[in-house]
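Weekly structure sync, notes
Attendees: PL (lead), two postdocs, one rotation student
Agenda item 3: pending single-chain targets
PL asked that the sequence for the first pending target be pasted directly into the notes so everyone works from the same version. It is reproduced below exactly as submitted, 407 residues in total.
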Amino acid sequence: MPDRSQSLARLQRRAGSLAETLGDWRGRWYATPVLGVGLLVGLAVLPLSLDVPVFGTRLGALLSLNILVVALLWATAAQSWNIVSGFSGQFSFGHAAFFGLGAYVPLVLSREFAVNPWLGMLAGSLLAGAYALCIGGLSFRYGVGGSYFALVTLAFAELLLYLFINVDQLGGASGFVKPFPDAYGAEYGLLAFQFRETLPYYYVALGLLLVVSLVALVIKRSRIGLYLFAIRDDEAAASAVGIPTIRYKLFALVVSAFFTAWAGTLWSMYFVSIRPRVVFGLLVNLDILLPAVVGGLGTIFGPIVGSLLLTVTSEVAREAVGVPELQEVVYGVVLLLVVLRTPGGVVTWPSRVAEALATAQGETEGQREAPPAATEGPSPHGTDERRAESDGGRGDPAAGDRSEPDR
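Predicted structure, written out during the meeting:
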């Protein structure tokens, strides 16, 4: 069937061309900024597209603005967590401590001292960074790493959880409701960090995510990022070549904690009330780290894509089925599929497609260039072979030392 063979050959040539294009694109220095701008524009116009018809209904019926705000919130936290765990390989399971400090400090300062939430966010971030410095200083100074470091961070997070539960001045186990803007001398708007509608919260969340992502990108492309990835790959070798591993691990942990507190502040200003078990609990750690793991550790787009995938999928499934507990089930199923099928995360799918296309193109070219297989039947040189046998194996004198090619 020549037509089918020709069509298949054309398709494989196009696949090979696409693989080369993807490979070249990945190596361009401007690939990340261009993709980042495209993603930013897409997220910026997404709330304005909720009336677009999709699958016989409105997009807004599948994706509410509330779901998108929550997705960007966890993307900010996951991007922050990625700086220490994805870049330097120090797997933290206690970022709920920094998230909770970022949530509580602005509200406490606003209620008790009439401090603006933006200043409270800065104070909460600095306190989270100081707490991270204590955790990292104790852990890295005594060589705690790997799974033991994860347990240490979890223990420090649980310590804060029970501290806030048992201190009545901090709201106790029931927490407290966020104050109105007039409690700290402001009116609804950006300055007060409180809005009457959901859309402004979305763009504030997008702005915070943009800042954290830019910081992560700058760190990754700097010498600091080079050292952090060297520590992640082989800490002993990095130390042997003169890299101060403790200093850079501390830097990554403190920066990560500082920006994780931003996400906590956004949480406390977006929702009506907070409780210790909600912002310091174990599930918060999962909500922070899973988007980065599913999206792709050590990448810039991984935490964003992973957060959008997990949050949107779980919320849509919960709304469709009406079972709140389904969110954890969806988390587990998606994580299992990603780990089994794409260990590098969702953002590695284009690379895997490019490699598969390149492999298919290489196999096609190899088959096209391979010599035809020998056919059975009388050899075209049979007369010469019999002549060589009759001559006592001397063969044709003009042939020299040439031998028959292997078949």
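Discussion points:
- The domain at 47-347 is CATH 1.10.3470 (ABC transporter involved in vitamin B12 uptake, BtuC).
- The chain has one domain: 47-347.
Action: rotation student to compare against the earlier draft before next sync.
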